[in-house]
Amino acid sequence: MGIRVAVAGASGYAGGELLRLVAGHPEFDLVAATAHSQAGQPVSAVHPQLAGLDLAFAATDPTTLADADLVFLALPHGESAALAAALPETVKVVDLGADHRLADTAAWSRYYGGPHAGAWTYGLPELPGQRAAIAAASRVANTGCYAVATTLALAPLIAAGAVAPTDVVVVAASGTSGAGRAAKAHLLGSEVMGDLSPYKVGAHQHVPEIKQATGAASLAFTPVLAPMPRGILATVTAVPTGDADPRAVLTEAYADSPFVHVLPQGAWPHTAATAGSNSCQLQATVDVDSGRVIVLSAIDNLGKGAAGQAVQCANLMLGLPETSGLSVFGVAP
Protein backbone atom coordinates (compact mmCIF):
# COMPACT_ATOMS: atom_id res chain seq x y z
CA MET A 1 0.00 0.00 0.00
CA GLY A 2 1.52 3.29 -1.12
CA ILE A 3 0.85 6.89 -0.16
CA ARG A 4 -2.79 7.71 -0.94
CA VAL A 5 -3.04 10.68 -3.30
CA ALA A 6 -6.06 12.49 -4.78
CA VAL A 7 -6.31 15.16 -7.48
CA ALA A 8 -9.09 17.76 -7.43
CA GLY A 9 -9.76 19.57 -10.69
CA ALA A 10 -8.29 16.65 -12.60
CA SER A 11 -10.08 17.29 -15.90
CA GLY A 12 -7.92 20.29 -16.88
CA TYR A 13 -4.49 20.27 -18.50
CA ALA A 14 -2.57 20.60 -15.23
CA GLY A 15 -4.89 18.05 -13.64
CA GLY A 16 -4.26 15.59 -16.45
CA GLU A 17 -0.53 16.01 -16.10
CA LEU A 18 -0.84 15.42 -12.36
CA LEU A 19 -2.76 12.20 -13.01
CA ARG A 20 -0.03 11.02 -15.38
CA LEU A 21 2.74 11.76 -12.88
CA VAL A 22 0.90 10.36 -9.85
CA ALA A 23 -0.07 7.17 -11.71
CA GLY A 24 3.58 6.59 -12.63
CA HIS A 25 5.02 7.54 -9.24
CA PRO A 26 6.75 4.65 -7.43
CA GLU A 27 5.33 5.58 -4.01
CA PHE A 28 1.88 7.00 -4.82
CA ASP A 29 -1.49 5.29 -5.07
CA LEU A 30 -4.01 7.39 -7.02
CA VAL A 31 -7.24 6.98 -5.04
CA ALA A 32 -9.45 9.76 -6.44
CA ALA A 33 -9.70 12.23 -9.31
CA THR A 34 -12.45 14.84 -9.10
CA ALA A 35 -14.02 17.25 -11.57
CA HIS A 36 -17.12 19.38 -11.89
CA SER A 37 -18.87 19.00 -15.27
CA GLN A 38 -16.96 15.79 -16.09
CA ALA A 39 -17.98 13.93 -12.91
CA GLY A 40 -18.97 10.37 -13.73
CA GLN A 41 -16.93 10.24 -16.93
CA PRO A 42 -13.99 7.83 -17.27
CA VAL A 43 -10.67 9.65 -16.92
CA SER A 44 -9.52 8.27 -20.28
CA ALA A 45 -12.53 9.83 -22.03
CA VAL A 46 -11.18 13.29 -21.12
CA HIS A 47 -7.46 12.42 -21.14
CA PRO A 48 -6.95 9.85 -23.92
CA GLN A 49 -3.22 9.75 -23.13
CA LEU A 50 -4.22 7.98 -19.91
CA ALA A 51 -5.93 5.01 -21.59
CA GLY A 52 -5.67 2.05 -19.23
CA LEU A 53 -6.11 4.17 -16.10
CA ASP A 54 -9.21 2.51 -14.65
CA LEU A 55 -10.71 5.47 -12.82
CA ALA A 56 -13.73 7.74 -13.22
CA PHE A 57 -14.03 11.37 -12.18
CA ALA A 58 -15.90 11.90 -8.93
CA ALA A 59 -17.63 15.10 -7.83
CA THR A 60 -15.34 17.63 -6.18
CA ASP A 61 -16.23 17.65 -2.50
CA PRO A 62 -14.27 17.26 0.76
CA THR A 63 -15.63 13.81 1.58
CA THR A 64 -14.22 12.37 -1.64
CA LEU A 65 -10.77 13.78 -0.87
CA ALA A 66 -10.56 13.41 2.92
CA ASP A 67 -9.36 9.80 2.83
CA ALA A 68 -6.15 10.71 0.98
CA ASP A 69 -2.77 11.31 2.60
CA LEU A 70 -2.11 14.17 0.20
CA VAL A 71 -4.38 16.15 -2.11
CA PHE A 72 -3.41 18.20 -5.14
CA LEU A 73 -5.81 21.07 -5.87
CA ALA A 74 -5.78 22.00 -9.58
CA LEU A 75 -8.77 24.32 -9.40
CA PRO A 76 -9.45 27.77 -10.88
CA HIS A 77 -8.12 30.72 -8.89
CA GLY A 78 -10.41 31.53 -5.99
CA GLU A 79 -11.82 28.00 -5.58
CA SER A 80 -9.07 26.26 -3.62
CA ALA A 81 -9.26 28.04 -0.27
CA ALA A 82 -12.75 26.90 0.73
CA LEU A 83 -12.12 23.29 -0.27
CA ALA A 84 -8.75 23.18 1.51
CA ALA A 85 -10.31 24.60 4.67
CA ALA A 86 -12.85 21.77 4.67
CA LEU A 87 -10.19 19.04 4.56
CA PRO A 88 -8.83 17.46 7.76
CA GLU A 89 -5.59 18.97 9.04
CA THR A 90 -4.03 15.52 8.75
CA VAL A 91 -4.35 15.68 4.95
CA LYS A 92 -1.40 17.39 3.29
CA VAL A 93 -2.34 19.78 0.46
CA VAL A 94 -0.52 21.25 -2.52
CA ASP A 95 -2.53 24.01 -4.17
CA LEU A 96 -1.72 24.69 -7.84
CA GLY A 97 -3.98 27.76 -7.84
CA ALA A 98 -3.08 31.26 -6.75
CA ASP A 99 -5.22 31.38 -3.59
CA HIS A 100 -2.35 31.03 -1.10
CA ARG A 101 0.72 32.33 -2.97
CA LEU A 102 0.72 36.00 -1.98
CA ALA A 103 1.57 37.31 1.47
CA ASP A 104 0.39 40.85 0.66
CA THR A 105 -3.38 41.30 0.94
CA ALA A 106 -3.24 44.53 -1.08
CA ALA A 107 -1.44 42.78 -3.93
CA TRP A 108 -4.05 40.02 -3.93
CA SER A 109 -6.84 42.60 -4.06
CA ARG A 110 -5.20 44.50 -6.89
CA TYR A 111 -4.48 41.54 -9.16
CA TYR A 112 -7.14 38.97 -8.23
CA GLY A 113 -9.88 40.63 -6.21
CA GLY A 114 -12.13 39.00 -3.62
CA PRO A 115 -11.18 37.83 -0.11
CA HIS A 116 -7.53 37.01 0.57
CA ALA A 117 -7.17 33.48 1.97
CA GLY A 118 -3.72 34.03 3.47
CA ALA A 119 -0.29 32.77 2.47
CA TRP A 120 0.96 29.19 2.68
CA THR A 121 4.55 27.98 2.40
CA TYR A 122 5.73 28.93 -1.08
CA GLY A 123 6.41 25.91 -3.28
CA LEU A 124 9.65 26.69 -5.09
CA PRO A 125 12.28 24.34 -3.59
CA GLU A 126 15.21 26.03 -5.34
CA LEU A 127 14.86 29.25 -3.35
CA PRO A 128 17.18 29.48 -0.32
CA GLY A 129 15.69 27.68 2.68
CA GLN A 130 12.56 26.55 0.84
CA ARG A 131 13.35 22.83 0.70
CA ALA A 132 13.35 22.66 4.48
CA ALA A 133 10.28 24.89 4.75
CA ILE A 134 8.33 22.75 2.28
CA ALA A 135 9.42 19.53 3.99
CA ALA A 136 8.05 20.86 7.29
CA ALA A 137 4.76 22.13 5.82
CA SER A 138 1.35 20.48 5.53
CA ARG A 139 0.01 23.18 3.19
CA VAL A 140 2.05 24.40 0.20
CA ALA A 141 1.18 26.97 -2.45
CA ASN A 142 2.54 25.84 -5.81
CA THR A 143 4.12 28.53 -7.97
CA GLY A 144 2.65 30.20 -11.03
CA CYS A 145 4.16 29.05 -14.34
CA TYR A 146 5.58 32.42 -15.45
CA ALA A 147 6.77 32.98 -11.88
CA VAL A 148 8.85 29.78 -11.93
CA ALA A 149 10.61 30.61 -15.18
CA THR A 150 11.32 34.21 -14.14
CA THR A 151 12.22 33.56 -10.50
CA LEU A 152 14.77 30.86 -11.30
CA ALA A 153 16.44 33.26 -13.75
CA LEU A 154 16.39 36.33 -11.53
CA ALA A 155 16.35 35.50 -7.79
CA PRO A 156 20.01 34.40 -7.40
CA LEU A 157 21.25 37.48 -9.25
CA ILE A 158 19.34 39.88 -6.98
CA ALA A 159 20.32 37.90 -3.87
CA ALA A 160 24.00 38.06 -4.84
CA GLY A 161 23.84 41.79 -5.57
CA ALA A 162 24.78 41.11 -9.19
CA VAL A 163 21.82 43.06 -10.59
CA ALA A 164 19.63 45.89 -9.33
CA PRO A 165 16.16 44.96 -8.04
CA THR A 166 14.69 47.88 -9.99
CA ASP A 167 14.08 48.24 -13.72
CA VAL A 168 13.69 44.51 -14.37
CA VAL A 169 12.10 43.72 -17.73
CA VAL A 170 10.59 40.32 -18.61
CA VAL A 171 9.09 39.16 -21.90
CA ALA A 172 7.83 35.57 -21.73
CA ALA A 173 6.16 33.42 -24.37
CA SER A 174 3.88 30.58 -23.25
CA GLY A 175 2.11 27.69 -24.92
CA THR A 176 -1.67 27.63 -25.11
CA SER A 177 -2.14 25.03 -22.37
CA GLY A 178 -1.19 27.77 -19.91
CA ALA A 179 -4.55 29.42 -20.64
CA GLY A 180 -6.48 26.36 -19.44
CA ARG A 181 -8.82 23.95 -21.19
CA ALA A 182 -11.95 26.08 -21.42
CA ALA A 183 -13.16 26.66 -24.98
CA LYS A 184 -12.28 30.24 -25.92
CA ALA A 185 -12.32 31.77 -29.40
CA HIS A 186 -8.83 33.26 -29.15
CA LEU A 187 -7.40 29.82 -28.32
CA LEU A 188 -8.80 28.06 -31.40
CA GLY A 189 -6.12 26.47 -33.57
CA SER A 190 -6.98 28.72 -36.50
CA GLU A 191 -6.51 31.79 -34.29
CA VAL A 192 -3.27 30.69 -32.58
CA MET A 193 -1.31 28.99 -35.36
CA GLY A 194 1.06 31.32 -37.18
CA ASP A 195 0.58 34.08 -34.64
CA LEU A 196 2.17 35.61 -31.54
CA SER A 197 -0.12 37.74 -29.40
CA PRO A 198 0.55 39.65 -26.18
CA TYR A 199 -2.06 39.69 -23.41
CA LYS A 200 -2.57 41.23 -19.95
CA VAL A 201 0.26 43.63 -20.79
CA GLY A 202 1.24 45.70 -17.78
CA ALA A 203 -1.16 43.93 -15.40
CA HIS A 204 -0.45 40.20 -15.29
CA GLN A 205 -1.31 38.47 -12.01
CA HIS A 206 2.09 36.80 -11.67
CA VAL A 207 3.88 40.14 -11.24
CA PRO A 208 3.38 40.41 -7.43
CA GLU A 209 4.34 36.76 -7.02
CA ILE A 210 7.57 37.27 -8.98
CA LYS A 211 8.42 40.36 -6.95
CA GLN A 212 7.72 38.51 -3.69
CA ALA A 213 9.87 35.53 -4.70
CA THR A 214 12.80 37.41 -6.23
CA GLY A 215 13.06 40.60 -4.20
CA ALA A 216 12.52 42.71 -7.32
CA ALA A 217 11.24 46.19 -6.51
CA SER A 218 9.87 47.04 -9.95
CA LEU A 219 9.08 44.77 -12.86
CA ALA A 220 7.74 45.30 -16.37
CA PHE A 221 6.24 42.04 -17.60
CA THR A 222 4.86 41.21 -21.04
CA PRO A 223 3.35 37.75 -21.55
CA VAL A 224 2.97 36.43 -25.10
CA LEU A 225 0.76 33.58 -26.33
CA ALA A 226 2.81 31.32 -28.62
CA PRO A 227 1.56 28.77 -31.19
CA MET A 228 2.63 25.67 -29.25
CA PRO A 229 0.81 23.49 -26.71
CA ARG A 230 3.50 23.48 -23.98
CA GLY A 231 6.44 25.52 -22.83
CA ILE A 232 7.57 28.91 -21.57
CA LEU A 233 10.58 30.86 -22.77
CA ALA A 234 11.28 33.89 -20.56
CA THR A 235 13.75 36.63 -21.44
CA VAL A 236 14.74 38.45 -18.26
CA THR A 237 16.86 41.62 -18.41
CA ALA A 238 18.27 43.61 -15.50
CA VAL A 239 20.83 46.31 -14.77
CA PRO A 240 24.13 44.98 -13.41
CA THR A 241 25.49 46.48 -10.18
CA GLY A 242 29.08 45.34 -10.66
CA ASP A 243 31.18 43.07 -12.82
CA ALA A 244 29.96 39.69 -11.50
CA ASP A 245 29.57 36.99 -14.14
CA PRO A 246 25.79 36.27 -14.14
CA ARG A 247 26.26 32.76 -15.52
CA ALA A 248 28.72 31.93 -12.72
CA VAL A 249 26.26 33.25 -10.13
CA LEU A 250 23.50 31.01 -11.49
CA THR A 251 25.81 28.00 -11.74
CA GLU A 252 26.79 28.32 -8.09
CA ALA A 253 23.20 28.90 -6.94
CA TYR A 254 21.91 25.73 -8.59
CA ALA A 255 24.86 23.42 -8.05
CA ASP A 256 22.72 21.14 -5.86
CA SER A 257 19.43 21.52 -7.73
CA PRO A 258 18.72 18.45 -9.87
CA PHE A 259 16.09 20.12 -12.04
CA VAL A 260 17.85 23.39 -12.92
CA HIS A 261 20.46 23.25 -15.67
CA VAL A 262 22.71 26.20 -16.48
CA LEU A 263 23.69 25.36 -20.05
CA PRO A 264 27.26 25.37 -21.37
CA GLN A 265 28.52 28.69 -22.67
CA GLY A 266 27.04 29.41 -26.08
CA ALA A 267 24.08 27.01 -25.72
CA TRP A 268 20.62 28.54 -25.38
CA PRO A 269 17.44 27.21 -23.76
CA HIS A 270 14.71 25.66 -25.90
CA THR A 271 11.15 24.99 -24.78
CA ALA A 272 11.07 21.68 -26.68
CA ALA A 273 14.10 20.46 -24.72
CA THR A 274 12.14 20.70 -21.46
CA ALA A 275 8.86 19.17 -22.73
CA GLY A 276 7.58 16.40 -20.48
CA SER A 277 10.20 17.13 -17.82
CA ASN A 278 10.39 18.97 -14.51
CA SER A 279 13.53 20.79 -15.60
CA CYS A 280 14.45 24.42 -16.20
CA GLN A 281 17.18 25.40 -18.65
CA LEU A 282 19.04 28.68 -18.09
CA GLN A 283 21.63 30.72 -19.92
CA ALA A 284 22.98 34.17 -19.08
CA THR A 285 25.03 36.81 -20.85
CA VAL A 286 25.73 40.55 -20.83
CA ASP A 287 24.44 42.58 -23.75
CA VAL A 288 27.41 44.13 -25.55
CA ASP A 289 25.51 47.33 -26.40
CA SER A 290 23.35 48.15 -23.36
CA GLY A 291 25.45 46.37 -20.73
CA ARG A 292 22.28 44.81 -19.31
CA VAL A 293 22.29 41.27 -17.97
CA ILE A 294 20.11 38.93 -20.05
CA VAL A 295 18.94 35.56 -18.76
CA LEU A 296 16.96 33.10 -20.89
CA SER A 297 14.83 30.54 -19.05
CA ALA A 298 12.88 27.61 -20.53
CA ILE A 299 10.43 25.27 -18.78
CA ASP A 300 7.46 23.06 -19.57
CA ASN A 301 4.58 25.11 -18.17
CA LEU A 302 2.71 21.91 -17.25
CA GLY A 303 5.86 20.37 -15.75
CA LYS A 304 8.10 22.66 -13.71
CA GLY A 305 5.42 25.33 -14.15
CA ALA A 306 2.59 23.29 -12.61
CA ALA A 307 2.19 19.53 -12.08
CA GLY A 308 5.87 18.55 -11.95
CA GLN A 309 6.63 21.29 -9.46
CA ALA A 310 3.65 20.17 -7.36
CA VAL A 311 4.93 16.58 -7.26
CA GLN A 312 8.42 17.85 -6.38
CA CYS A 313 6.91 19.71 -3.42
CA ALA A 314 4.81 16.69 -2.43
CA ASN A 315 7.92 14.50 -2.42
CA LEU A 316 9.58 16.87 0.05
CA MET A 317 6.47 17.08 2.23
CA LEU A 318 6.27 13.29 2.40
CA GLY A 319 9.96 12.70 3.13
CA LEU A 320 10.67 11.17 -0.28
CA PRO A 321 13.60 11.88 -2.62
CA GLU A 322 12.92 15.18 -4.38
CA THR A 323 13.18 13.56 -7.82
CA SER A 324 10.81 10.62 -7.21
CA GLY A 325 8.44 10.07 -10.12
CA LEU A 326 9.86 13.01 -12.09
CA SER A 327 11.97 13.21 -15.22
CA VAL A 328 15.03 15.42 -15.41
CA PHE A 329 15.13 14.95 -19.19
CA GLY A 330 12.77 16.29 -21.83
CA VAL A 331 11.10 14.41 -24.68
CA ALA A 332 12.27 15.05 -28.24
CA PRO A 333 11.52 15.53 -31.05
TrEMBL record:
Keywords: Amino-acid biosynthesis, Arginine biosynthesis, Cytoplasm, NADP, Oxidoreductase. It catalyses: N-acetyl-L-glutamate 5-semialdehyde + phosphate + NADP(+) = N-acetyl-L-glutamyl 5-phosphate + NADPH + H(+). It holds the Pfam family Semialdhyde_dhC_1. GO terms for molecular function: N-acetyl-gamma-glutamyl-phosphate reductase activity; NAD binding; NADP+ binding. It is found in: Cytoplasm. Its EC number is 1.2.1.38. Gene3D superfamilies: Dihydrodipicolinate Reductase, domain 2, NAD(P)-binding Rossmann-like Domain. CDD domains: AGPR_1_actinobacAGPR_like, AGPR_1_C. One of its GO terms (biological process) is L-arginine biosynthetic process. Pathway: Amino-acid biosynthesis; L-arginine biosynthesis; N(2)-acetyl-L-ornithine from L-glutamate: step 3/4. The active site is at C145. GO terms for cellular component: cytoplasm. Residues 4-135 form the Semialdehyde dehydrogenase NAD-binding domain. Catalyzes the NADPH-dependent reduction of N-acetyl-5-glutamyl phosphate to yield N-acetyl-L-glutamate 5-semialdehyde. Belongs to the NAGSA dehydrogenase family. Type 1 subfamily. NCBIfam families: argC (TIGR01850). This is N-acetyl-gamma-glutamyl-phosphate reductase.
